[in-house]
Amino acid sequence: MSLKNDLILRVARGEKTERTPVWLMRQAGRILPEYRTIRNSVSGFKELVETPELAAQVTIQPVDILDVDAAIIFSDILVIPEAMGLTYEMVEKKGPHFPETINSQTDLLKVEVADPDRLGYVYKAIEITKNELNGRVPIIGFAGAPWTIFSYMVEGGGSKTFSKARRLLYTDAGMADQLLEMITESTTGYLKRQIQAGADMVQIFDSWAGVLPPDHYTRFSLRYISKICDAISEVPLTVFAKGAWWAMEEMNKLNCQTVGLDWNMNPEEAKRQLPNKTLQGNLDPCALYGDNDAIKTAVKKMLHTFKGHPYIANLGHGVYPDTDPGKVKYFIQSVKELSLSSSFPQPEAPWQKRVYNKNADNPLIFKSYSR
Ligand code: CP3
């Protein structure tokens, strides 16, 4: 099925496009009353995630309502620990909770490398979404980064400090590596199946990257992200490591196409340290609490700072649940309108000239080189 709007894929490949593509992390659910209606018709979040027809419906809602340039499949990063044997509960107004956690070598016996077949409901939701979107926009598949998933499995939920997860890196690095390796293998198989089901690009969320010191980040997070990047060559891949501003230079070496930036990251530094990557981000989600004029000014400033680099507009993290959908719409519209103007042309990336022109029609040899 050919895509009517493939802007985001072309920019990820470093191609020149007519305008800047835009979507929002966590655009499905959260802010939309239309989501709440469907959510209230089922017993809870997990039933929604595990019912492919409904998951597809809420995936498409932001495409219809907000007019974004990509759909992100409605699911959660926590389906991986569950498929590995550690179930979670989504506690209303509180967030995820794991009744069982992994804190020692013997705890490792509770989990195994996930059989990708256990996540059939996600692939089915992608297939239905693909069918229903009928090529309107690409579908983004996703997974959590091994370090972020590890944190949930060790802590049993969110945490202010992640001190249990971080402690293990000092007290039992061998055990930490074993669990990280199992998560990495599970995640690779899972992403491959999402791609087979129809995901046009995939994103790895390392939401808790910023709690690690830089040397541990390299050793316990990037190392495993890098393995996933090396294993996924079918579609463009984005790595979003929230808080890891000090890792940009190393991330330039990852075998991925796009790097996501949070709002603390400096776009000028990112352009300098990530010359081989398309950049994505990075408006402060709180900017959407401002009035329309302020949003437009912020968008203009953002487009200006990323000027001259292949770029996908987004927020610097997921949209906050109490954001007015009208403001989100205005943000999206502003990116579209302003980036069409000749002041903010999408450039052709230097690496595009070198490699892609030759292989443009063959997605399978898409990453047969290293940027
Ligand atoms: O638009 C999308 O991005 C849809 C899919 C999506 C969800 N979660 C749905 C969801 C994605 C990509 C995620 C990723 C996710 N989940 C991350 C990484 C991104 C990030 O924000 O850093 C993390 C850390 C989680 C774990 C998680 N899931 C938490 C902490 C919570 C509770 C708080 C909240 O509302 O986000 C969830 C629940 C969750 N995941 C909801 C949704 C729509 C809300 C559940 C509900 O409807 O009650």
Report on this structure.
The protein is of the alpha/beta class and 371 residues long. The chain is built from 15 helices and 9 strands. The chain has a 7-stranded parallel beta sheet with strand order 1-4-5-6-7-8-9. It has a two-stranded antiparallel ribbon with strand order 2-3. Helix 10 (214-231) links the parallel strand 5 and strand 6 (237-241). Helix 7 (146-155) crosses helix 8 (163-171), helix 8 packs across helix 9 (173-197) and helix 9 (173-197) packs parallel to helix 10 (214-231). It starts with 6 loop residues before the first helix and ends in a 12-residue tail after the last helix. The structure holds coproporphyrinogen III (CP3). Residues 25-30, 39, 45, 72, 74-78, 90, 95-96, 142, 158, 205, 207, 318, 321 line the site of coproporphyrinogen III. Coproporphyrinogen III is lined by residues 25-30, 39, 45, 72, 74-78, 90, 95-96, 142, 158, 205, 207, 318, 321.
Tags for this entry?
371 residues; seven-stranded parallel sheet; two-stranded antiparallel ribbon; binds coproporphyrinogen III
Globally, the shape reads: globular
**pLDDT averaged over residues:** 94
The largest sheet is: 7 strands, parallel
Helix content: 40-55%
